[in-house]
Fold these 4 entries.
Entry 1:
Amino acid sequence: MSATPLAYVDGAFVPAADACLPIEDLGLQRGYGIFDYLRVSGSVPLFLDDHLDRFLRSADIMRLPLAHDRQGLESIIHEVIDSEALTVSGIRILLTGGPSSDGYTISSPRLAVIRQPLSAPPGQLPATGIGLCSYGYQRQLSSVKTTDYLMAVWLQPWLKERGGDDILYHDGGLVRECPRSNVFLVDEVGFLVTPKDGMLPGITRKQVLAVAERIGIPSVQREVRLEELHRAREVFITSSTRRIVPVRQIDDHILSAPGPVTQMLWDAFLAHEQAYLRAHAR
Amino acid sequence: MSATPLAYVDGAFVPAADACLPIEDLGLQRGYGIFDYLRVSGSVPLFLDDHLDRFLRSADIMRLPLAHDRQGLESIIHEVIDSEALTVSGIRILLTGGPSSDGYTISSPRLAVIRQPLSAPPGQLPATGIGLCSYGYQRQLSSVKTTDYLMAVWLQPWLKERGGDDILYHDGGLVRECPRSNVFLVDEVGFLVTPKDGMLPGITRKQVLAVAERIGIPSVQREVRLEELHRAREVFITSSTRRIVPVRQIDDHILSAPGPVTQMLWDAFLAHEQAYLRAHAR
C-alpha cells in the first residue's frame, strides 16, 4: 500500500491532493462530461459491474471514446482504492470532453478516478422520512449520468427556503427523479411502481427491483403522475450512498413513513448488499 | 512584459500552460459555472464594459459571490493580455462553483482568466451565408452565460450529417438563438427583428441594435416564430468572434444572402468597432 492516497488523472496516478484538469478541457469550458459514483465498503466497490455498465453506456451515448477497456477501468479503480485504507468511501469515475482545438470537437477525452470521503449509510431504515419539493424540470439526456447538475445546485437555496430535504423533478406532472435518487411508490394494491423514462436508471433502483422480485413484491415501471405520489401508500427514494430513504412529505401532502413494504425492501436490500460484499471480499 | 504568457487562476498568475482546476471543483463535478468571452484586438478588449456587466449579472443570478470588484477584474484581464503580444485573441473569464464539502453548497467560487488564440474575423461581410439546422431546445437559465453547452457539443455530429454550419435552437417553434450567436431577421417592411426572451443577450446583439438605431433602421425585440425566418428578407447571426454572418439557408428554406440591410449593419458595426478601438487604445 502506497503512503499517499492516489487519484488517476488522464493517464497517470498522482497524489489525490494534486488531481486537477486543464481549464481548457471541454468538461469545464462546455460542461461536457459524464461520471459514475459508487460506494466502497472497505475495499469492495459495490455493484461495480452495474456502475461500469452504466459508465460505458454513458460514454457511448455521449460519443466519448474511452482509451481503457472494462478490465483496465477496474484495475485503475482498485489501485485508487488500495492507496488508502478507508471504512466507507466513494469512487468517482469522470470522463470529460478533453482538449479541443475549436471548443467543440472531441478528440481525446480525459479519464479521472478519484476517491472521496463518505459517511456510512444508516445501519437501519431511517425512522423518519424526508420531505420533497416538486419542481418542473426535465434533465438533458436523462439516461446519461452527465455532470449537468446546474438546476440542482441552483435550486438549493429555493429548497432550503421551503424547508425541504430534496427536489423532486417532474415534467408537466410526470414524475422523473430527484437530482441524485430515483423515486418509488407503493400503490393501493401493494404494487411497487417507479418511473420508466426521462430519468437516470439508478443502480440501487435496479437492485431494489431485483430484490422486490425475489421476495415476491410485484413491480412495474411506467409513467407516474405527481398525484399518484400524493395518494400512494408509501413513497421512498433510492441512491447508492443512502440505499432507501422513506418520504414523509411531498409539497403539502403528508405521507405515512416508513411503511411496511419499504421496511421489507430495506431488509432484503441490506441482506443482498451483505451477500455481495461477502462474495466480492478482496 | 513577462517572458511567459500568463493565466490567472484562483488568486494567482500562473504560466498559461499550467492553468488547471481541481477535479473536485463544482465546475467539473456539477457543471456549475459561468463565463464570458471577448475578442481582444491587439491589447484592447472589445466592449469590455458590456462583457463585465453581463459577467457580473451572470454571477449574481447563479449566486456565485465574486472576490473581485469590477476594477479588480479589469486589472487581471489587462495583466493577462499584457503578458503576451498577439494581434487577435480571445479572453475567457471563468467563474466556477469552487470546492464544496457536500457537492452542492457554494462557498468560495474560483475565478480564472485565460487567453486563447483566435482567428481574426473577416475584414468584410462574408459574401456567402451559412446554413442553419433548427433543433427544438431551450437553454437552461438562458439569460446566464453558463458553461452548459451539453446539447451544442452533443449535436455536432448531427449537424455535420445534415451538412449545416450551425444549430438554430427553437422552443416549440419560437426562435431562441444559435449556441454561440444571436439571430436577427429583416422583415417584409424592413424592420430589424430579434428574439426578446429565452436566449442569451449577446454583446454584439446589443451593439448591432445600437448601430441600427444610429443609422435609422427601426428594430424590435419580440417573440419570433421559425416560419418568420423562412419568409424573411434577410437573416443573419451575430457573435463577438465573427461580428455579423449572413444566413443563406434554414433547414430546407433558401434565403438570399447577404442582403442590403445586413451589409449596412456590417459597415456601421465595423466603423463602430474601429471607433471603440481608437477611443480605448492603450
Entry 2:
Amino acid sequence: MAHVEIDGRRVLADLTALRRIGEYKTGVHRPALTAEHLQSIEWLVARLPEAKLTASIDGIGNVLGRSNCAGAKVLAGSHLESQRHAGWLDGPLGIVYALEAARVINTSAAFAGKAVEVASWCDEEGHFTSLMGSRSYVGQLDEDEIDRLADIADGRRLRDCLAAAGVAGRPRAQVEEGRHIGFIEAHIEQGDVLESSDLKIGIVTSIVAVWQYRIVIEGMQNHAGTTRMAVRKDAGLAAARLAVAIDETFPGIAGARSVWTTGRIALDPGAPSIIPGQAEMLFQFRDSDVVVLERMERHLEGLIGEANAKGPCRLKLEKLRKATPAEMSGDFQSALQIAAERHAPGRSLRMPSGAIHDAARLSTRMPAGMMFVPSIGGISHHWSENTSDEDIVLGARVFASWAAELLSRA
Amino acid sequence: MAHVEIDGRRVLADLTALRRIGEYKTGVHRPALTAEHLQSIEWLVARLPEAKLTASIDGIGNVLGRSNCAGAKVLAGSHLESQRHAGWLDGPLGIVYALEAARVINTSAAFAGKAVEVASWCDEEGHFTSLMGSRSYVGQLDEDEIDRLADIADGRRLRDCLAAAGVAGRPRAQVEEGRHIGFIEAHIEQGDVLESSDLKIGIVTSIVAVWQYRIVIEGMQNHAGTTRMAVRKDAGLAAARLAVAIDETFPGIAGARSVWTTGRIALDPGAPSIIPGQAEMLFQFRDSDVVVLERMERHLEGLIGEANAKGPCRLKLEKLRKATPAEMSGDFQSALQIAAERHAPGRSLRMPSGAIHDAARLSTRMPAGMMFVPSIGGISHHWSENTSDEDIVLGARVFASWAAELLSRA
C-alpha cells in the first residue's frame, strides 16, 4: 500500500469551521436546506478544488466533487445537515474525512490516475425524509414524493426549499455504472461499544434495519372528576401499559444486539382534567437479522392482540417502515481492517451499525463500507455529542489509509 | 310553597339558541372571552329584562342580573363559555335554568318583593384560570394574577381580551354581604351515576377537591439505534411505568369515590428515533375527604420515591394545586330534596360532585347548593355530551321549585 499522510490539524480546523455554521451550545442546529445548511454546502464546494475535484450541487441538494482522472475511483462522503439542536460530528466527520482523503490521495503521485471523489448527501437525517439525497442518487426517490415532502418540524415544503437554494430544476445526480469501485463512509459510532472496550475503530459489518410502527389507541374522552374509575376508557393508560409490557417482554424474544424504542407517546387532548380519549405511540425496533425482526414484529402483534382482548380501549397497529438490513462489502471490511491494524493495532472491532446511514442506500447499487470512531459517553442526537481530538485525527488517518488500500487493489 | 310553572319549550329554545353560538358538531367551541363567548354574553344580557333584572358585565367578564326589589334574593347561575370543542350543556344549562327560574318567580305576584338574581361567571373552565369569575366575585383573584394570565391553549393575554371585550377598567363585582340568602347552581352530572341508576336529580352534598401534580422526569436523550438497552435512561418509559404503578396500586389506598387521572404524558423530543430525554406527566386525584386526599398524596410520593431509588431516571414531583373540598349547605340540600320529591318522587340521590364548579367558590362566602341532571352515557368535556329533552325540562322544573322553596323560607 502506498503511504498517505493526512494533516490532523487541518481535519480539526475544518470540523471547527463547520461547527461555527449554525452553532448551538457545543453542537449545531443545521436542518436540511436551511440557510445554515446551505452555508455549509458552500463551504464544502469551496474546499473541493483543494482535492482536484470539480464541485456541483444537484437538484436535490447533493454535493458531488468529481475528478477528471481516468482510473479507479472510490466515492466517499456523508452528510452536512444536522438533527435539530444536535451534535457537531454527526455527518460532518465523514465529510471532512472524505475531503482529507481526497486532498492527500488526489494530489499524490503514487495514486496518479486514481481518485477519491466526495459526496455530501442531502438530508440523511430525515427533516424531509430519511436518506433523501442518497436515495435520490441510487434511483429510489421519485418526483411525486418530492412534490409531497415537507419538513416534519416546521412544514417547509421541499420544493420551496430547493427553489430557495437555487437548485430547483437541476438534474439529480445518479449512480454511473462502473464509475466507482464502491462507497465508503465514516461516522461517529453514536453508541458506547467502542468507548466501553477502549477500542478506536469500528468496522461495520451491516447496517441494521429499522421497523417503525405507529399505534393508535381509541378510548373515550371524558371528565376526570365525574367519570367513575370502573367505566373509564383511558387511552393514555392503555399506551402506558403497552410501553411497560414491551419493556418487560422484549428482552425474552429480541436478539442480543436488538434495540427497541417508544419515541413518542401523545395523549389527546392532553389536558389535566380530561381522561385521554385517544393516544398515539411511535415504536420501533432494529436488528441486522430479518429472522429476529420478524420475531419481534410477531411479538408486538401479540401484545396488541392481548391488549385488545382485555380492553377497554381499542389498539390499532400501523406498519410505517420495514427495511432490509444492509450488508457491508466483505472486501471493504478486510481493507479497513488492514488500515486499522496499521494505525491502531488490536483496537478495532467488527460490529453492526444500529443507526441508519447513507451507506445503506449506496450498498444497494455498489460495494459499500463504513467505519466508526468512538463517541464520548455514547451520546448522539444531542448537542453534547463529542469525540476526542485524538480519536478524530486517528480516524482520519485510518480512513485515508482505507481509501488508499482500496485504490491500490483496483 | 307557592307554585311556579316553568315553560319547558322556552328552556329548550334558549339552550338551542346558545348552542348555535360557536356550534361545533353537536356541541360548541366557545372558549372564554372569544367572540363566540362574548356573543353568548350579549344573548344573556338581552334576556335578563324578561326576568325584571338589570344586566351588567363587570371588569372580569361576569354578567350579573340585579333586581331592584327589597326582599330576599337568591343568586343563581353558572357559566357560558365552553371547553374547547366540547359540549353544549356544560354551563349553559345552569344559566338557562337560572334565567327561567328568575323569569317565572320575579314576575309572580306570589313572590312579590323577592327575586332570583342571575350570574354568569367568566371562565369557570379555566382557559385562563379555573373558576376565574367566581373567584373574582368572592375576592380571591387579585390584579397581579390578572396581569399574568394568558389562555393556556393559544397564549391570548387576559388583559388584552378584557380590553377587546370592552370591559377593561370596569369594577369587578364583589359579594355584597347580606344581599343573597345563598347561591344555587344547576349542572349536568358529567358522570353516569344518575343514568346508571335511572335517577333524575342529583343533590350535591359536597364538591370534591382536586389535587393536581406535575411530574418531571429526567433521563438521557440519545440515539434509538446505537444506544444499548442496558445503558439507556428512557424518560418516556419511566413515565409509563409510573402511570401503570399508579393504576395498579391506587385502588388499594383510595376512597370508594376517589378518581385519579394522568391527563398528559409528553415526551421530549418525541421523535421516532430518539430515546426521550425528558418526560412530563400531569396527574391529579379528587375526593371529598381530606384524609383520603392526604393518603393518596403520601402514596404518590412513595411511588416516586421507589422509582427514584430504582433508577435510572430522576423523577421530580411538583404540587400544583391542593384545594379543600367544599361542603354544600344542609338547608339548601333539604330544600332541593323537597323540590325533587314534588316533580320526580323517589328519583333523586345525594351525591358528591366529582367536578369542580363555581358553587365551590361561592360556598366560601355564602350558603351554596348544587343540583345535577343526568348526562347521557356519562359523557362530558366532549362535543357528544348530551341530556334528554325530557330530563332537561324536568330539571328546570325542579330548579325553579328549589329557588321558590328557598325564597318561601326566607
Entry 3:
Amino acid sequence: MKKLTNKAILGSIIFSSSLNNIYLEKNALLVIGPNGKISDLIKRNEDRYHNEVRKYRYSQSLVEIKGHQYLLPGFTDLHIHAPQWPQLGKALDIPLEKWLQKYTFPLEAKFKDENFAHFVYEDLVRSLLRAGTTTAVYFGTIHQRATQILAEKCIKFGQRAVVGKVVMDNHSQCPDYYRDSSTRDALDDTETFTKFVEELQKNNEGKIYAAITPRFIPSCTNEALYELGKLAKQSNVFVQTHCSESDWEHQHVLDRCGKTDTEALQEFGLLKKSTILAHGNFLSEQDMDIIKAQQANIAHCPLSNFFFSDAVFPLRRALRKGLSIGLGTDIAGGPSCSVLDTAKNTIFASRALESGVNPFVQREGRGLSNSRVSFKEAFYLATKGGAQVLSIPAGSFEKDFYFDAILIDTEVEHSRISLDKFIDSDEDMIQKLIMLSSRSNIVETWVGAVSV
Amino acid sequence: MKKLTNKAILGSIIFSSSLNNIYLEKNALLVIGPNGKISDLIKRNEDRYHNEVRKYRYSQSLVEIKGHQYLLPGFTDLHIHAPQWPQLGKALDIPLEKWLQKYTFPLEAKFKDENFAHFVYEDLVRSLLRAGTTTAVYFGTIHQRATQILAEKCIKFGQRAVVGKVVMDNHSQCPDYYRDSSTRDALDDTETFTKFVEELQKNNEGKIYAAITPRFIPSCTNEALYELGKLAKQSNVFVQTHCSESDWEHQHVLDRCGKTDTEALQEFGLLKKSTILAHGNFLSEQDMDIIKAQQANIAHCPLSNFFFSDAVFPLRRALRKGLSIGLGTDIAGGPSCSVLDTAKNTIFASRALESGVNPFVQREGRGLSNSRVSFKEAFYLATKGGAQVLSIPAGSFEKDFYFDAILIDTEVEHSRISLDKFIDSDEDMIQKLIMLSSRSNIVETWVGAVSV
C-alpha cells in the first residue's frame, strides 16, 4: 500500500468531526484524488455504495483493509523539542529552570555539529512517523543550519511539519555556550531560516512551514521579542513559544514584565491566529479571553505537566471557553514520543485534576470539579483539533482533507487488542482502540496518501 | 530459547536488589539450575569469569543474548480482576459504586458460563505473559468452577499465580443475579476452592496458590468476614481484598463498622503477613502502623487511582514507614494490562501528588511535598517488591531465585529505543528502558526458566 493516490480504500475507518462526534464506519469506501486528498467518502447505507465499490474493484484501484484493521487519521503533535530526542525518557528529576541549565542547554548546544543534527533528526522524524505523527511542530535549536537540516529531514521522509529556529538572546538566562551571538543575529537568522523554508515550500506544497520561535520570554530580550512580533506581523508564518508553563516561569514573567505571559506576548505582537502557546497551565480567565480574542492556540502537554509544570492545564475550562487546542508530547519534557500516549495521558491528567490527588485533603477541596475530558475529546484533539490549530485540512476523513492516516492492526503479535463484536458497542470498540493501542499496533502511516 | 534449565546465559541483565539499588551488568553470566532457579551469577570482573564462560560454551550449554537485548526480571501484578478482562479500556466514566452495579457485576455474572470462563481466561493469561507478568494475583468471580478454570489456565500456560474465589454475600450491596447463594455456601466454596488449589500444587510446586478473597467489606456480611478470618488463621493461604479505596468505600466502612477498613479487617482476622490490600488511598498514619505491625502488604494501583479512587495513594509515605508494597494493574479499573505501564504510572502519579494538579491553588497548598518516587523505586516495586509481598523468590537475578524473566529487545521494528552508548550512562540506559519500552519490546518471557 505504498501510494494510495487515485485509489479507493475499503474498510473500517474511525474519525472525529468535532469535539464530541466520533464515528466508526465499517466497510466505508474512501476515495483518494491525485493530490493526496480525500475526494469522496461513501458509506455502506448509501444507494451508490455497491456500484462504487464495484467500479473501483473492476478498475483494479480498490485497496481492501482487513477485518481486524482500522484506518485512523494521523496525529498532529503541536509541541516537540527536536534536539531533545536523545534525552527522551531520562533527566526528569529536577525543576524546569534547573533542568534547562543542567541537561537541556548542554544537549541542545551540541547541534552546532551538523553531523550530530543529521544523525539525531533523521532518527527522530522516522520514529515519529512510525508512531503515527503525520504532522509535527518542532522547536529546533539556536543553530540556523541544524534547524534547516531538521526541515530537510521532514521533507525527505514525508512528514508534514512546522519548524522554527529558536531565539535565545538574553544574557541573564542563557549560558555563554548556548545563546544567540547577538539580538541582531537572532533576528537575521530567523529571517534567513524563514526564507529557506519558503524555498522548500515551492516543491512541497502543504508540507513544510516556518515558525518564529522565541523559546520563551525568560530566554529573550524585550528587543528581540518586539522585533519578532514585527516580523510575525509582516509575514504569515507561525509563531510558537511557551506560556505560563510553571510556577517559576509564570512568576519570572510577572516580575520582569509586570504582567502575565499572555499579556506580554500580546504586547510584543506575538499573539496571532498562527500562534501556538505550549502548556498554559497558569493562564487566568482573562489570559484565556485574550487568547480567544486573538484566535491564538494552545498545545496541551499532559505528560510534562506532571514533571515540569507544577500543575495540570485546566483543559476542560479552556474548551468551555472555546479556545483552539491540540496536543503536544513536549519531547523530552514528557517521556513519550507518541501522540496516542499523549491522548491517553490527557484523559488521565484530566481525571487527576477533577478528583484531586491528595488524600489528606477533604474531598470538596481536593480537585477541580468538572475537569474531565472524554476519550472522544482526547482523540479529537490528537487528530482534527491539532490540525485545525495549524489550519491544515487533515486529521479527519472528510472531503478535501489530506489523506494523512495510520493503519491500526488489532491482531499484531505482541499487542493484541481484544474487541468482542458481541459484547462491545461501536463506541466501546473506539474507546478500546484508543486506550489499548500501542505503537506496534500502528502498522502503516501515510501522509498525503503516500506511505512513509 | 525454549527451556533454559541447566544452561548459562550470557548478556546484559538489569535488576533491583532493593528499593534504591538497581544494576546493569553487561555481559554477565547467569547460570540456571535444573529446578529453574538461578544457581550462580558471575560478573565480568570476577577472576573465574572467562573460565566459566568457556566451560559453558564448550559444553554447548551457553545461550548468548544479542547486544541490543536486555534480560529483566519478570513482573509481579498484585491486583487483577480476571473476569474484567473484556472490559479493559472501556467503562471508565462513573464512580466505583455505580461502576460496579452498571458494568462490572453484570460482566462478572457471565462467568457462571464455563465456556465463557475458558475463553476469557485463556486469552487473559496468555496476554499477561506476553506483557511480561510472570506472577499474577487474581480475583476470580463468585463462581467456584470458573475460578478453578482460571487456576488451570495459569498452570497450562505456565504463569505463577495466586487465585481467589470472590466472596460477596451481602444482600444490601450485591444484586440478586450476582451474589453468593448464602454465607454458608460462600465459605464452603472458598474451602473447596482452596482444596482444589492444594491438589494442583502437588504437581506444580511454587506455581499456584489460593487466596481467601472477600471482595471488600461492603460486599460481605460480618459473619462471612469473621469466618474467612478464622479460615485464614487455620491455613497458610493468601488473603486479598480492597482497602480504603475511594471516598465512598472508605466512608461506607466507617459508617457501617465505626472504624476504618484496616481496623475492621484486623478485627475480622484478615490482616496477616499473607494479606494483600489493594489501593489503600485513604489509609491513616495509624492504619499504616497497624498494617506494618501485622506485616500485611499493599498493592498500589496508580492508574485506577486516577479513575476510581478519588486520590493518589501516598506511596512515598508508606515506603518511608517501611510497608511492604508492590504494584497492581487493577484490570479493568486501570486501562492497561502491563505492569511496565503501571510502573511508569507509579512515577507519573507520584509526581502529580507531589506537585499537585490544580493551578488555581497556591503552590504551597497544591500538592503533598516529598511524594515522588524514582524510576528505580518503581522498577523495584514492579519486580522484586511484588514478589517479596508474596514471599516468592523471584523478581531479581539472585542466587536461588526463580529465573522468571523477560527479554527486552531495543531494536524491534515499531518501538525502537534509542540508547546512545556515548551519551547515556548506565543509569540513563536503565531509565530509558523503563520509560520507553512498550509491550512489543518484550520478545520473550520465561517462568522458572521455561519459555511461556
Entry 4:
Amino acid sequence: METYSSKLLQSAVEEFSKLPGIGKKTALRLVLHMLRQDTETVERFSDSLTRLSREVKYCRECHNISDHGLCEICSSPRRDPSIVCVVEDIRDVVAIENTGQFHGRYHVLGGIISPMEGIGPADLTIDALEERIAGSSAIREVILALSTTMEGDTTGFYLYKKLQPFNLKISVIARGVAIGDELEYADEITLGRSIIHRTAYDLTTAK
Amino acid sequence: METYSSKLLQSAVEEFSKLPGIGKKTALRLVLHMLRQDTETVERFSDSLTRLSREVKYCRECHNISDHGLCEICSSPRRDPSIVCVVEDIRDVVAIENTGQFHGRYHVLGGIISPMEGIGPADLTIDALEERIAGSSAIREVILALSTTMEGDTTGFYLYKKLQPFNLKISVIARGVAIGDELEYADEITLGRSIIHRTAYDLTTAK
C-alpha cells in the first residue's frame, strides 16, 4: 500500500497503474508529468479517451476500428477489393499500412485462436469473414498475415480449412519474419517484403 | 506518420504518446486496452486526471501535493515537527513514507539544482524553506535526503551553506544508497536504514 499526500493524486496514480505494463512508480511519474501540463492539455488527453470509448465503431466489412459504419480503407476506391489481408488486430493493420506495400483490404479477426487463454474460433470474426467472402464476387485472394507463433499457425490452419471451399487463392506472408516473433514488432522492411513475397498456402509450411 | 482507421483512435494514441517514455506502439497498446474496458471505467480514469489537474493544491508548509492548504503530514499531530526532511519531489516523499522509518515532516524542493537543465536555486522552494525555518522555533534538525548524484550533491552543498546560520543540526541520509543511483529506485530496506543512520553534515562527505 503506497502512501500519498493527496487523495486526488492517489486516485490518478491508481487509475494509471491499472494499465498493462504500468507499475505504481511509472504511474506516479506519468501523473506528475500530467500535473506539469496546463489543465487544457490534461482535458484534451482525457476527452480523447472518453470520446473514443463512447463513440468507437467497428467497420461492418473488415471489423477494424472506424469512425463510420464503413472504414476509410473499405470505402476507398483506391483500395483493391480483390485481396483481403486477414490480421489479428488493429495493431497489425497499422504495421502493414506503414510498410506502404499493401493496397488491398483487411479483415480484423479481433484476436487469435488460443486454447491457453480460452479464445476459440467463435470469439473471432471468422464467421463474418466467411459471410463476407460468400457475399462478394470481387474477392480473389486472402492473405493470412498472422504472427509466426503457435497461436498464429493454429489460426492460419483453421482459416485455411474454412476458406478452402471458396475456391480462392489463399496465401501467407513470407516467413521473413523471424519465427517466434510478434508481427507488430517486425521492422517495416521485413514486413513489407513478407507482403510482396507471399506464397500460396501450403500445408507443409503451415506447421 | 502512423495511419489509423479512425480519427478518434488516432487522437487518443497521439495524446498517450506525449507521455514520457511512451512511444507510438505502447500508446496504441494502452489505448486498445482502454477500448476493451467499459465506458464507466474509462471515464473514471479520465475524471481522476482532470480533477487532479483542476483541483491540485500544494501544502503551504512543505510544498508537497495536497488536497488542502496544509497537507496530511504537516497537519498530523503524530508527526514530529522538530525534524524536516528535504527532498527533491513527491516521489521521494512516497519512497521514504514507504520505509515507515521517518516520523518527522518534509520539505519538497520541487526539483534539484541542475545547471545542465537550467534549474537554479531560485526555481526551487529554498527561500520558502529558509522562511519556514526562520518562522518556526520547533525545527531542530534538517535531513538532506537527496539523490547521490552530482546534482543531489550540489543541491545538498548549497542548502548546507544556506542553512548553516540557523544553528540547526544538518544531517544527510546515510550513503547506503549506491553512488550514482536515483533515490526513488532504492529498495525500502536500504532507504529505511539510510534514514536511521543519517550522519551530521560534513564537508568531506558532501563531495
